[in-house]
Specification:
- By secondary structure, the chain is α+β, with helices and mostly antiparallel strands.
- The chain is built from four helices and seven strands.
- The strands form two sheets. Strands 1, 2, 5, 6 and 7 form a five-stranded mixed β-sheet that branches. A two-stranded antiparallel sheet has the order 3-4.
- It is rod-shaped, with a radius of gyration of 24 Å.
Length: 207
């Protein structure tokens, strides 16, 4: 027997109801922000921008420090922010064997065809008017934003590119369930429930 499971986890690692699953993230149209051009934005990340102001590089950096997104955990403002959630779909199949001696049902389970999905957003400062800056200050500001972007893209790499192998390894460990023989008629639902709960536990520990 076989089945398909789709799960998504919010930013706190909680299993989200199907209706609340976010649409796949798309890259923000950043072309209108001149500073964002040429910085290597990822197509799999949604970019948000908050405005900063100033007539000098120092004033603009101060504006970013004072107006950046608020971090509830540290109760401070940051000049950039990163948030993410994830989900997956997978196929599972199983075979059962009756153990007459112990009156048990051995269930061998295989999870395969795992497809990951992510909802990732990065918040950056944007200078809407850079006409006050000289060329040196413009380069300083672009390098400043590029530095923030490098930090946040490093976080994307960690959560997206470096975790999948560990998740697949833990899913592969969900390979066996022992049931009482009198549960044979309910084996389909019991095995699916077990698989769903175990992968939900993985998602909770991952996000």
């Amino acid at each position: 027997s076989r089945g398909e499971v789709i799960q998504h986890f919010d930013a706190a690692g909680n299993l989200a109801p199907e209706a609340r699953r976010p649409a796949p993230s798309t890259a923000h149209n950043a072309q209108k922000y001149s500073v964002a051009q040429g910085l290597g934005l990822r197509p799999d990340v949604r970019y948000e921008f908050y405005p900063v102001f100033g007539r000098t590089y120092a004033e603009i950096v101060k504006s970013a420090e004072e107006n950046g997104p608020f971090n509830k955990e540290t109760r401070t403002r940051r000049t950039s922010a990163f948030s993410w959630s994830m989900g997956w779909s997978y196929q599972f199949s199983y075979a059962t064997e009756y153990d007459e001696e112990n009156d048990k049902l051995h269930c061998d389970i295989i999870i395969r065809d795992v497809v990951f999905s992510y909802d990732i957003s990065i918040t950056l400062p944007v200078l809407t008017d850079n006409s006050f800056l000289n060329d040196i200050e413009k380069d300083l500001w672009k390098n400043y934003v590029a530095g923030l972007l490098d930090i946040e893209h490093g976080r994307v790499k960690i959560v997206k590119d470096e975790q999948q192998e560990g998740i697949l390894r833990r899913m592969a460990e969900i390979g066996y369930l022992l049931l009482d023989a009198d549960a044979e008629n309910r084996a389909d639902s019991l095995i699916e429930q077990y698989v769903r709960e175990e992968t939900a536990r993985i998602g909770n520990k991952t996000v």
